[in-house]
Structures are given as C-alpha cells and as structure tokens.
Amino acid sequence: MNISNKVLGRLTRYRALLTEYFPKEKTHIFSHELAAMMGLSASQIRRDLMCLGYYGVPRYGYEISELVKYINEILDASKLHHVAIVGAGNLGRALMTFLESRRATLKIVAAFDEDPSKSNRMINGVPCHSMDAAEEILRREDIRIAILCVPGSEAQRVTDRLVRAGVKGIMNFAPVPIRIPVGVALEEIDVTSALERVAFFTNNRANAPKERRHADR
Amino acid sequence: MNISNKVLGRLTRYRALLTEYFPKEKTHIFSHELAAMMGLSASQIRRDLMCLGYYGVPRYGYEISELVKYINEILDASKLHHVAIVGAGNLGRALMTFLESRRATLKIVAAFDEDPSKSNRMINGVPCHSMDAAEEILRREDIRIAILCVPGSEAQRVTDRLVRAGVKGIMNFAPVPIRIPVGVALEEIDVTSALERVAFFTNNRANAPKERRHADR
DNA sequence: CCAATGACGTGAACAAATTCACAACGTTCC
DNA sequence: GGAACGTTGTGAATTTGTTCACGTCATTGG
C-alpha cells in the first residue's frame, strides 16, 4: 500500500507520543485511547495502523513496543540522516537546540550563513560555515536534508544552490513558497500563515472547527 | 460559502506573496502566474479566489491591489490581535523576532516563562512575565491567542491554564498534541514530525511526491 | 465591426481522506 | 464449554479537496 503524507505525519506523532509521553508501565493501548490522546477518531487510528502490517488483537489492543517497532520499520528509522541548517538567524539557531537529540536518526551536522560574523565557529554545538563553503561541505558530510531559515528574498536562490549541491529534502521556514525540481521532498512551514489561520477562527464571526474528536459510535 | 482551513491557508500565502515579494510595478496577475509562483495548478488558484467575491477579468487577470483588499476582508485583517508567547526558551525567543512586524494585525504583547531568570524583563522587545502572572495579564491585555513553546511534558497543563484564562486560539509548537475544548482554535506545528516526513521521502526507496505543479490544459 | 484570442468562472468528474457500520474473533465469566 | 462482551479490521458510504473541460466574455487586430 502507498502511505500518504498525512498518514505518515500521524504515524510519526503516534510514535513520539508512545515513546516519550506515555506511562512506561503500560504495555498495550486501544485505538480509542490513542485517539483520545491525539484528538482524532478511533477509526482513523485503526486505518492508519493498517498500513503497518502489524495487527492488534481484539480486547487487548496494540502492543506498544511492537507498534513502535513497526512504525520505525516503515519510517526506516535505522538510517542516520545528516541535516544542515541554512541561515543561522534567530530561528535557525533556535532550531539547532530544539532539534538537538530529539530524534537519534536526525543529526544536525552543519549550519551555513552569509554573515561572516557567524561563520567558522560553533553555534549551539553546530559548526557554522560561510555560504561559500556550502557545496563542498554538503557533499563532504553527505548532507541530503536542509532546513531553510533564510529571509524570504533569499529563499529561492539559496534553494537552487542547495538542490544543485545534491540536497534531496528541504524544510522551508521562509515565508515564501519555494520551487523545487521533482525528486526533491519539500515541507513548507509557514508560521505566519498558521498564526493568521488561528487568528481567523478566533474572530467572533467564525465558529472554530479544527481537529474534531469523535467517539467510535 | 464556507471557507475551509486549506483554502484559508493558501489565501494568506497568496497575500503574503503579492504584498511582499512581487514586483511593485505590476498591477495585474493571471491565475497561471500565481500558480507558478505557488507551485499549484491554475484552476486551484481560481477556485480559491472564487471564495472572495472578487472577480478578475478575462485577458486582464486579477488586479493585485483589489485582490489583496478582498483577502484582507475575508481574513478580517482590520482587527488587531494581541498574541502571547508562552515559554521563552530558544524557540519562543526566536519567534518573538521572527514574528515581529511580520503582520501588522498580529502583535506579540507578552511572553511568559516559569524560569524566574527570564521574567520581569524585556526579551527581544517583548515584556516577559512569570507564569504566575499569566491569568491576570492575559485578561488585562485582552490576549486571545497564544503561541505555545513549552516542553512536551508541560504542554497540556499550560494549555488548560491558558484556556481557562480566556485564550481562544493556540498555535502549538510543543512536540505533543494538546487537547482543547470546542470553541478554541488550534494549529499544531510539529517540527520534528515534519522533518521526519522529509527524511522519509529522502530515502532512496520512496520517490518523493509533494506539491505538484500543473499547467491548466 | 467582427472574428480570434486567451483567460476567467464553474458544473461535473475525479481523487483523497474520513467516518460509519458491522462481521469476526480473542477474552472473560459463569 | 458456551454465552456475552468489547475491540479489531475493513468494505461501503460520505465528505472534502482537486482537476478537467468548456461556455462566456472583454480585448485586440484586421
């Protein structure tokens, strides 16, 4: 079966919840319990888990350690990915520490910035280089994933450089959409847009929808 | 017509693109031009714009200033929203400057943190208070929107406090889902999950989909 | 003035995502 | 051992989102 982006996103969150924020003594979980924690419907949980090839048992639920194992397998969590942060402004630097040791398989190994005062030194434990060195270091360190935290006006230009240097996945925090060739994965995180959506539903006129939760029956 | 979240998100991005990253001398734009910039199909752009009640003219396209005016109207951009950042760690502090003056109608007026060394002083131009003062200040400053940047273990507890204090919209950066009562808007931004999705498609096995682009015919 | 153009608006088709509803089946209890 | 229970897995229905395809219309050029 083909796993959609949306399912993928939820699977990663199930895993995070189960491995990091779930009482260690519990060994099993029901779809409706996970649903309650995630704010989703139980049937959606079950649908998502169907993709894994792991099956729960009625009246017992899903064995947590097995579940995590199967999710890891789908996500191919054995591979270590080298990640670069491009743009060491406030946001870039914050992400260095935020992402530090969050996932063992995602390791931030370099940062780049055009500002000379930021390059050629460690920042938050990450070696920061000049943009000029980007191509060489991306290849040398085998970096395939980049987190883009440059100003909107630079975003497309920098993206093109990264792609030429062999980057295969980009998470874009710049407030403009970027274009990428097919074969490169893209995740756009537009914080301003998200905040505006929240503000919209906060207006009296609109009665906020969002993340419904449902009992199974 | 009811505007869906997805459409809403795209509208905010159209506006950002048109007002901030588009040559000032151009007064009109075609659906296919906007589509190319956004990485979407032209027909989707036209569908989205249908919601606005503003109509372009064939062969001329859409008048940019009008378009922006109508989007503003839908988003009710006249209202000023006070926003609080909860959790003044690296990420919270970065968002203070990142969101500074990005949208005139979204103003960060306060921050809160449990760490006493961070409270009762200005950080990045934002007055930062102790969490104990949250309820009082949220009401006094009429803050209805909060950006949650606390550790996952604190997220739900802090959320409950915010909601009790009258917050109507939350943008959650904590790496766990939070539950909110109906009537409160929620936007979850899970950076780790997004990065994992990118990593997934960067693996050789999967051939990355994402943001297709299409000509109209 | 009229035909050709090329973009718009939109009904209809299509696709994706979610929910419903229920059969199947371990488990528990009597 | 057998009936009752409660949860799973999944086909079908529904809802939501996207694309197609074409009629319409303002403009341009002959």
What does this structure look like?
- The structure is a homodimer of 217-residue chains.
- Chain A has 217 residues and is an alpha/beta fold.
- Chain A has two domains: 5-75, Winged helix-like DNA-binding domain superfamily/Winged helix DNA-binding domain (Arc Repressor Mutant, subunit A, Orthogonal Bundle), CATH 1.10.10; 81-190, Rossmann fold (3-Layer(aba) Sandwich), CATH 3.40.50.
- Helices cover 40% and strands 18% of the residues of chain A.
- Chain A has eight helices and nine strands.
- Chain A has a seven-stranded mixed sheet with strand order 5-6-4-3-7-8-9, sandwiched between helices.
- In chain A, a hairpin with a 2-residue loop joins strand 5 (121-123) and strand 6.
- In chain A, helix 1 (5-20) crosses helix 4.
- In chain A, 41% of the residues are buried.
- The interface between A and B is large, with 73 and 72 residues.
- The first copy, chain A, binds a DNA duplex (30 and 30 nucleotides) through residues 4, 6-7, 30-32, 41-44, 46-47, 49-50, 55-62, 214, 216-217.
Can you write the helix and strand succession of chain A as a string?
Answer: HEHHEHEHEEEHEHEEH
Helix proportion of residues of chain A, in percent? 40-55%
CATH homologous superfamily title of the largest domain in chain A: NAD(P)-binding Rossmann-like Domain
Structural class of chain A, by secondary structure, is alpha/beta
Quaternary structure annotation:
homodimer
The top level CATH class name of the largest domain in chain A: Alpha Beta
Our Rg estimate of chain A from Cα atoms comes to 20 Å
pLDDT averaged over residues of chain A? 92
CATH architecture of the largest domain in chain A: 3-Layer(aba) Sandwich
CATH topology of the largest domain in chain A: Rossmann fold
Order of strands, main sheet of chain A, comes to: 5-6-4-3-7-8-9
Which protein chains make the most extensive interface, counting residues with beta carbons within 8 Å of the other chain's beta carbons? Answer: A-B, 73 and 72 residues
- Determine the N-to-C terminus distance of chain A: 27 Å
Number of strands of chain A: 9
Give the number of helices of chain A: 8
Q: What best-fitting shape of chain A do the alpha-carbon axes yield?
A: elongated
Strand content of chain A: 15-25%
